Amino acid sequence: MKYHIVTLGCQMNLSDGERVRTVLDKAGMQWVDDDKDAELIGIIACSVRQKAIDKVYNKIAQWNRQKNNRNLITFISGCILPDDYRKFLKLFDLIFQMKDLTKLPEMIRQYGISSPLLQHEPIKSAQHDMKDFWSLTPSYQSSFEAFIPIQNGCDKFCTYCAVPYTRGREVSRPSEEILKEFKQLIDKGYKTITFLGQNVNSYGLDKKGNEINFAELIDKAATYADASGRRIWIYFTSPHPRDMGRDVIEVIAKHPSLGKQIHLPLQSGDDDVLKKMNRKHSLAKYREIVKDIHELIPEATLFTDIIVGFTGETEKQIENTRLAVEEFKYNMIYLAMYSPRPGAVSERWADDIPKEIKSQRHAYITKELRKHSYAYNQKQIGKTMPILVTKRDERNTQYLSGYNEGKITVRFLSEDNSLIGEFVNVEITGASEFSIEGKFLG
Ligand code: SF4
Questions:
Q1: What is the DSSP string of 160-173?
Q2: Is 341 in a helix, a strand, or coil?
């Protein structure tokens, strides 16, 4: 049977999608690049953004029309809100939760005979044992970059976010399994590995003393990677400022294998907005963490997430966010204009900042970011640094593109595609606001 999968949403979903492919491949099915050639099509959905949900409805309408002319089974899994779940039951042939992934081949085999899936209750069962799912070896999509889920779900309940309702409460994956998967990837020669979770640094807390904590987990992983004697960059995303202790920063400082780049979501530079977002951290707490980073890892780059135009955000409050960007001198901000997400608490509040004002605030914060990222990138000129080459540059195909240890995009002229997936040395010769350029040294 030929199959195709469409993955929407975040890196967690991409990682889940890799495991779905493993199960289908093991069941003897054959991947096809074009959904028109597939007899089984699945979606790994994201209920968090309305755009992604609209895409699911478009796709399933298309596929259900095609059923008039060909044999086709459709399934859906991933991040699904209870309301969408009920609607999808009527549209898709199969719907299941990731923790039940190992049963998918059986569900497909039985399709048309019985439908045990209809009894599922998405939220209640989200905390069930994920062991079978996590013990699957995923079909990694890259031979040099891999993502390892260490935790699923979230306990933080930020008011603008639906993740605690789609993925359920925080569940940590057993550390032996994480380290087993990690070591296998290192032994296979992977160059970079990212630990994934909604709140990676609250890893283990749900196990109430029966599991190591996040600092200990990355310490163990990095000790193994360091011992390989090879260059390896380990990252994690995303941590939550509330649980970001000095111990985590000390471990990053200690190990050459832990990438010197930290993504620390700020969301807003104003304490009242942070409170309304239920972020459970203040600007002062955030400032303490950045101080520790500067003290212990002065070379680290700093990335963040910010939302502009949150319900009721005033001019004064956006100005506080700009001041925070000025103070923390980010290298990159994943900047979003607020929009109410289905299922989130803030959906009930007025989305009272007009679209044009949100765009202006977006541009205002971007302008502040550009100053700092450009100043940092300029300082790299003349330095020679290792780059992990990841792809051919999409805009100018004479260039290869990749990133340095601080995850700043770097490109250089080269026709040699065999460098993709390798570390190379590059001398930096030019800088723009969001990337640097260099000369390939070998
Ligand atoms: S934004 Fe808040 S609620 Fe959503 S996943 Fe992150 S910490 Fe959890």
A1: T--HHHHT-S-EEP
A2: coil
Between 12 and 325, name the one with better pLDDT: 325
Which residue is closest in CA terms to ligand 1's atom 2?
Answer: 158
Q: Which residues contact 302 (CB under 8 A, 6 or more apart)?
A: 261, 262, 264, 290, 293, 328, 329, 330, 331
Residue 116 CA to ligand 1 centre (angstroms): 32
Ligand 1, CB cutoff 6 Å, lining residues? 154, 156-158, 161, 163-164, 198-199, 240
Mean pLDDT of 377-397: 96
- 166 within 8 A of 47, measured Cβ to Cβ: yes
Q: How many Å lie between the centroid of ligand 1 and the Cα of residue 161? A: 6
What's the CA gap between 28 and 43, in Å, rounded?
Answer: 19
Looking from the CA of residue 162, the nearest atom of ligand 1 is 4
Is the pLDDT at 52 greater than 90, yes or no?
Answer: no
Cα–Cα distance for residue pair 235/405, rounded to 1 Å:
10
Give dist(CA 131, CA 172) in Å, integer.
Answer: 10
Whole-number average pLDDT of the chain: 91
CB 90 within 8 A of CB 67: no
pLDDT number for residue 125: 39
pLDDT in tens, 85-142: 888 988 999 998 888 888 888 888 776 433 333 333 333 333 445 667 777 778 788 9
